[in-house]
Design brief:
heterotrimer, A alpha+beta (366), B alpha/beta (500), C alpha+beta (144), B: 500 residues, alpha/beta, Alpha-Beta Plaits, eight-stranded parallel beta sheet, 15 helices, 16% strand, globular, C: 144 residues, 2 domains, two-stranded antiparallel sheet, 20% helix
Chain lengths: 366, 500, 144
């Protein structure tokens, strides 16, 4: 039996990188691929991927569903489900480039879809929750089908391979967007499955993560109370769900969410001014099971920007820099210099200190 | 009429070491030892010996040894000595057999079949001597939603919480079942440690009102000692529905233990038996429990969390789910191996289920129903060391109650004769000459030492797992593996087997 | 000065202090060898009456009557406050035993006086009665 995500828990070390134009200026995916390329050392060819925002302006109001199929049976079953629940504007194979470095690809399809109004009304859910639940249903129930991207005007591209090869495979140079994140994976088990590569995404949220969290099962068992199903058993998946829960369901801000998952130590909280102390104590007391421990650095993206965050001990490297309206986040400085030699304001954020970048003129929250 | 009872122990005295100081004689409330002046020899009446080891501990020349009685009936794999002796006792007395402390029978201890994880290579272990390592927990209800004021600031909408510096509390032991000095030791230790002790169903001695902020007061079926002041002074109120050592039955503190002081604390006449009924006679169903929970909350203006304590019985998951929905802030579950000051032997040794299985199934059920976050879970029933605490928390508990371990720290040698009221260690007795043997100045420090030592060990274990806050351990069952457990046991515990 | 104090509330009357005292002042390394088969002459004694027990030893008075009354000059008040007995000078008149208001001076097996010297003059180094008290009823501390 092949060891795949969902059957075993696969910890991994990684490289991450993120680039955003705060003015929403578009640039091609080539830059993120270049940035990842110099961190080849940090991955081992067993997983690479990207998320790109602003790439589907023509279908910006539809959910772009990227789906892996093991075979045509899975595709048939999944499409029946999709047709039942969504109105599909366009269905096509996701364009790829045949290269020797990437092999054994599954069927990779893309659908631009909107929930069927009658179904949506009957469900009494909002559109996003309805879509999220459909994604969960496909991933849990339809054997051989896996939705790995489900946001609007954004897309996730991932595969088993080195990130730069994955970028070429998906022809990222032909996509233009205002924000990209990339991930190169160094798993400690051999994953056999493309769905297990990163980023991990739900709706317009996408997360790349480097680390191995020690709180995994505490977080998983808590978050699963709220309808999430952690099918992949990866850290990235659970962190995405935690952020989705805190932001979308509970209504916390990004900063508050960061104070939950990388909460300051009690000893630090005690030194804060009274109002801040009360706020942080409240958040820790309210959501103790969503504290994430163990090493991690993550970039969390949403339609309106990104947040970079380290674990509270800063057990993983992470650098940020700026140049004009551009903001860069990466595991290593070289990944930033590779695409912006003149990067300024280089910073090494402290453990637990969120770096939040939002689009100019946009709302300042997910 | 001669009885057929055999002694439990033999007193071995090395005469070459005995200096006839007679400390053993003076210290034995059971009057085992005596001195024969004529022959200058120490004598022992072994039938009276309960094996409490007071004499052994105080003998200055280590001349004493208490060993198991070596005499035996004709060997019989089916009829143990114990079984035969119990029949003799009942044939003589016609009464129910009484026992104290937790069951000594070899029932499976699942904690011993669970192993803990540690980090290697892929993530770093954390050294608690160099990095912060947090053991603070809050117990109480958590609301479903956040609230903000008009400026967007978060409102603190949390119901009252108990803050613990370490997830350990002293479990309920009443003043009456244990001594004034034992209570004072527990109260002072809880205060110094930043944790809580529990009055049990014995009321609260007026001297101890000053420890109120670290006191959980109990309301049990006899309602002994319950009044407005008692509720008001406490940090939390516990409704005791059951006890692990004796699920389904009440309590009975014999009249000789109801001294002047105990009578005042319990609000009953001196010398009368204090009988707690088996059920609460105003709680015959779950909706009645809800009424009591809210009565107590009303009486204390919703300022104090209410704990509902139940014994671990077969249907515990459903019971806990019902309690979680009846307004309780905290559920305490007491397992089969839990201790008691006195219980019918047959009940103690045969009724209930082990705490590990109860905890695992309750935690799972509450999660399946999506309400685990609404209520805290405290477990009890033979938490013997810091590893048991860590395993309990990884299985899903928020905190543990320790009773027996606390008494052992105070000097208890687990002789299991609390019900006789002649505790040589000054713990389970009201006899003034015995009570004074427990100096709370010593007692409270020993308790503080014990919990502090466990806290250090918990931090070491957490650090090994790469976890730096106990919150991230709660319900983190991937950190556990079973050894020598069958598939059903693993399924109930929700853990994998070692090697998986 | 640091003195030995007894708290009657915690004294159990076990008399371990008496044996620890006798052993500490025996010069022997083993308690069995020191005390087995012997009558002991401890410098601290437990008084017992009506269920109350209390260990008594020298208070090392500020103005010790025993020192004043000693006809042989064997008792002296030392610089550190301790009342010391030079047994080589003691003539066994027992005036000190008579005058001590606490009954803290006793007779040894030879008939000479015997009193607590806080284990500062033997090899124990710290009052053995204090160290061995199982209930912290005897303490060695500085009080105002």
């Amino acid at each position: 039996m092949k060891l795949v995500e969902g059957r075993v828990r696969i910890p991994s070390g990684c490289a991450i990188s993120g680039i955003i134009s705060r003015d929403r200026r578009k640039f091609t995916g080539e830059r993120i691929v270049e940035s990842m390329k110099v961190m080849r050392e940090r991955s081992n060819g067993l997983g690479g991927g990207f998320a790109a925002y602003g790439i589907y302006p023509k279908y910006k109001d539809s959910y772009a569903l990227h789906i892996f199929y093991n075979d045509s049976n899975a595709k048939r079953e999944c499409e029946a489900f999709l047709n039942e629940h969504f109105e599909i504007d366009e269905a096509s194979e996701l364009p790829t480039r045949k290269i020797p470095e990437i092999t054994d690809e599954p069927l990779i399809w893309r659908y631009f879809a909107l929930p069927r109004p009658s179904r949506l009304a009957a469900s009494q859910l909002d559109e996003r929750e309805y879509t999220a639940r459909c994604v969960f249903a496909i991933n849990a129930r339809i054997d051989g089908a896996y939705v790995f991207s489900s946001g609007k005007n954004m897309g996730v591209f991932k595969a088993v391979g080195y990130p730069e090869d994955v970028g070429r495979f998906y022809m990222l140079d032909e996509y233009e967007g205002y924000m990209f994140i990339g991930h190169g994976r160094y798993p400690t088990n051999t994953p056999g499955w493309w769905g297990g590569a990163h980023p991990f995404s739900l709706l317009d949220f996408a997360v790349v993560h480097n680390g191995e969290i020690s709180s995994y099962d505490a977080n998983r068992r808590f978050i699963e109370m709220f309808g999430y199903r952690c099918a992949l058993m990866t850290d990235t998946e659970v962190i995405t769900y935690i952020l989705d829960y805190l932001i979308r369901h509970v209504g916390l801000t990004l900063e508050e969410s960061a104070s939950v998952i990388a909460a300051p130590f009690w000893s630090s909280i005690a030194k804060k001014p009274p109002e801040e102390r009360e706020r942080l104590t409240y958040l820790r007391t309210m959501f103790p099971s969503l504290l994430v421990t163990g090493p991690f650095s993550i970039i969390f993206c949403f339609e309106g920007g990104m947040m970079a965050l380290n674990d509270r001990l800063k057990l993983r490297s992470m650098v940020t820099a700026e140049k004009g309206d551009m903001v860069y986040v990466a595991s290593e400085e070289c990944a930033i210099r590779a695409v912006e030699p003149d990067a300024e304001n280089l910073r090494y954020p402290s453990g637990g200190e969120p770096v939040i970048v939002t689009l100019n003129g946009g709302k300042d929250n997910a | 009429m001669p009885n057929y009872i055999l002694p439990d122990f033999e007193v071995e005295r090395r005469d070459d070491r005995c200096i006839r100081c007679r400390v053993c004689e003076r210290q034995c409330a059971n009057e085992v030892h005596s001195y024969d002046e004529e022959n200058d020899v120490m004598l022992a009446d072994e039938l009276k010996c309960v094996g409490c080891h007071r004499c052994v501990a105080l003998c200055p020349t280590r001349a004493l040894k208490i060993v198991k009685y070596s005499g035996t009936f004709r060997e019989n794999a089916n009829w143990s000595n114990q079984s035969i002796l119990e029949i003799y006792k009942q044939a003589e007395s016609g009464g129910v057999l009484l026992s104290s402390m937790g069951t000594p029978n070899p029932c499976p201890v699942y904690f011993d079949k669970i192993l803990i994880n540690a980090s290697q290579v892929t993530n770093p272990s954390i050294d608690p001597l160099r990095e912060p390592m947090e053991t603070r927990v809050f117990l109480g209800k958590r609301p479903q939603n956040i609230e903000r004021d008009e400026t967007g600031k978060l409102n603190n909408n949390l119901p009252p919480q108990l803050e613990l510096s370490v997830p350990i509390m002293f479990s309920a032991m009443s003043y009456g079942s244990i001594s004034y000095n034992a209570h004072e030791s527990l109260a002072r230790a809880a205060t110094e440690l930043g944790i809580y002790y529990n009055t049990g169903e014995g009321g609260l001695h007026e001297d101890f009102y000053k420890y109120g902020p670290n006191t959980i007061v109990q309301v049990a079926s006899g309602r002994f000692g319950v009044h407005k002041g008692y509720l008001d002074v406490a940090a939390a109120i516990e409704i005791k529905m059951g006890q692990g050592a004796k699920p389904g039955i009440g309590g009975h503190l014999p009249g000789e233990k109801i001294t002047e002081d105990v009578s005042r604390a319990r609000m009953i006449p001196v010398g009368t038996d204090a009988i707690s009924p088996a059920p609460h006679h105003d709680i015959y169903s779950i909706e009645d429990l809800r009424q009591l929970v809210y009565s107590l909350k009303e009486a204390t203006e919703y300022k104090k969390p209410v704990i509902v304590k139940v014994a671990a019985v077969h249907n515990i998951a459903a019971i806990a789910s019902g309690i979680a929905r009846s307004g309780a802030d905290i559920i305490a579950i007491d397992g089969f191996r839990g201790g008691t000051g006195a219980a019918p032997t047959r009940i103690r040794d045969n009724v209930g289920i082990p705490i590990e299985l109860a905890l695992a199934s309750v935690d799972k059920r509450l999660r399946d129903e999506g309400i685990r976050g609404n209520v805290s879970l405290v477990v009890a029933g033979s938490i013997r060391n810091s590893a048991d605490v860590v395993k309990a928390i990884a299985l899903g508990a928020d905190a543990c109650y320790i009773g027996t371990a606390a008494l052992i720290a105070l000097g208890c040698h687990l002789c299991r004769t609390c019900h006789l009221g002649k505790c040589n260690w000054g713990i389970a007795t009201q006899r003034p000459d015995l009570v004074k043997r427990l100096n709370p100045e010593i007692g409270y420090k020993r308790l503080v030492n014990l919990v502090t030592a466990w806290q250090h060990e918990i931090k070491e274990l957490l650090g090994g797992m790469g976890i730096n806050s106990i919150e991230a351990l709660r319900g983190n069952r991937l950190m556990l593996r079973g050894v020598g457990l069958n598939e059903k046991e693993l399924e109930i515990l929700g853990i994998k087997h070692a090697g998986e | 000065m640091k003195r030995v104090y007894v708290n009657e509330k915690w004294c159990l009357g076990c008399r371990l202090c008496e044996y620890n005292c006798a052993f500490a002042n025996s010069g022997e390394k083993d308690m069995v060898k020191a005390l087995k088969g012997k009558k002991i002459y401890p410098r601290i004694r437990v008084d017992e009456h009506d269920g109350i027990t209390f260990a008594v030893s020298c208070r090392h008075c500020e103005d010790p009557i025993c020192v004043k009354s000693c006809i042989a000059g064997a008792l002296s008040k030392e610089g550190d406050g301790m009342v010391k007995l030079d047994r080589t000078k003691c003539v066994g008149c027992l005036t000190c035993v008579l005058v001590c208001p606490y009954g803290a001076v006793v007779q040894d097996e030879r008939g000479a006086a015997l009193k607590c010297e806080l284990c500062l003059t033997n090899t124990a180094g710290y009052p053995a009665c204090v160290k061995g008290c199982p209930n912290a009823a005897i303490v060695y501390e500085e009080r105002d």
